[in-house]
Amino acid sequence: MLGNALLTAFVLLVTAWFIHFLIWKIRIPVAYPYWIIAIFFLTFLAYGIFYVFTSSEPVFIQFLWILACLTPYGLIGCAYLMIYAGIIEYSPSVEILLEIKKYMPAGINTSELVIKTLPEDKLTGLRIQHLLDSNMLTEQNGELLTTSKGQRYARFITWYRALLFIRYPGEG
């Protein structure tokens, strides 16, 4: 049963990824974190509804099966979201790695390291604009305010960090 649940979770993950890929080929959504979460959630929900209505197993067995599939699916889906954010977003850490890579194999002295791709507008300005575009922030009279959508996402990230015992960014 466990092997079949892992296989099912894998097939569902590939399906969710493919749906994600197709949507991104049509148009990349501005609020992509919500889209990815929705795609992965709805893919599993559709499978769960299909399974419940087509299975002849007792309800308790159906529940165990859904749970056995959901566990790896949910964990890998969360990992995918974190990895994807690191790939698509501007990452200062990646910029540092790419700059140092230019000096390999000898390396570069820390005092000589200049990273031209880390100006202030990339570090905060780009992110603020992305948050404005995705309606997580709003600007009123020159003041930035979080929207209810932004507050929900911040609460989710805070909860997720607490779940991983991360007290502040970069600790994990």
Give the termini distance in whole angstroms.
Answer: 34 Å
- Report the portion of residues in β strands: under 5%
State the shape.
globular
Residue share in helix: 55-70%
* Total count of helical runs of at least 4 residues: 6
**Sheet with most strands:** 2 strands, antiparallel
Number of strands: 2
Q: What is the residue-mean pLDDT, rounded to a whole number?
A: 86
Low-confidence stretches: none
How are the strands ordered across the major sheet?
1-2
Cα gyration radius (Å): 21 Å
- Order of helix and strand elements from N to C terminus: HHHHHEEH
Secondary-structure-based class equals mainly alpha
Domain count: 2
Please outline the helices and strands.
Blueprint: H1 2-26, H2 32-54, H3 59-88, H4 92-101, H5 120-133, E1 137-140, E2 143-146, H6 148-163
Antiparallel strand pairs: 1-2
Keyphrases for this structure?
single chain, two-stranded antiparallel sheet, mainly alpha, 172 residues, 2 strands, 6 helices, 2 domains
